[in-house]
Amino acid sequence: MSNEAFNNAHVLDPAASQATQEQITGEITDIHEAYRQEVLAGKKAETQPRVDFAPYRSSLLRHPTKDLHHTDPETIELHSPAFGQRDVHVLESDLTIQHNGEPIGERIVVAGRVLDGDGRPVANQLIEIWQANAAGRYVHKRDQHPAPIDPNFTGVGRAITGPNGEYSFTTIKPAPYPWKNHHNAWRPAHIHFSLFGTDFTQRMITQMYFPGDPLFALDPIYQAITDQKARDALVATYDHNLTSHEWATGYNWDIVLTGSNRTWMENEEEEH
Ligand SMILES: [Fe+2]
């Protein structure tokens, strides 16, 4: 069966989104086992989520079916918008001070470094985050499940990495939330991260998770990454040194940009 026929078979079946968690988990287990066998047989380990991943039902009609169109970044970068530290205020990395009152929930600090594939720091990198509140609710019209909106929490922030690639956000620990991928589907608690590079053609989007989440095994988005080591890389570490007395708990999460040895800021400096 071709990919398209396979996808259509799932999506056009009105029962598809009514799949049970047991079905979804069973499919995840089978795909992971097949992957494990392939790696044992010598296949290279995967590092990225699969775009064509049947348990992730709601992505079946909208995931890319063709290879990415590769453009020449050297040319495009000359004409594309770039982002710099002068555009971002340092207080934008604190998601708990955007309104008149304190948001409800567990105050946390999420900090780490952005590194390239060789472990070198990526400085002056724009990082944007967005997330649900402590009740698992987004400030978004499409999120209508019965959990309260917090008038003191919008759930978006941004920061620019320092000279050693370091970043730090102060925020509220998000809760899991339901979605309509299948019956009784719940996302593990997560924070969305976007890294821009120097222009739109380099944008990378990922999610950070919290250690020990009981929903990991059930989540087809997290499990669309078939490799355990690659999945583990998305989970922050509780860091008591980042935790501050009577203020906030701390989580450490480093972001490693693989696939290129290029350190964006070095090239930008060369160009100017
Ligand atoms: Fe989300």
From TrEMBL:
GO biological process, one term: 3,4-dihydroxybenzoate catabolic process
Keywords: Dioxygenase, Oxidoreductase
Oxidoreductase listed as a keyword: yes
Coiled-coil regions, chain positions: none
GO MF assignments: ferric iron binding; protocatechuate 3,4-dioxygenase activity
Pfam families on file: Dioxygenase_C (PF00775), PCDO_beta_N (PF12391)
Protein's name according to its UniProt entry: Protocatechuate 3,4-dioxygenase subunit beta
The Intradiol ring-cleavage dioxygenases domain, residue ranges: 110-138
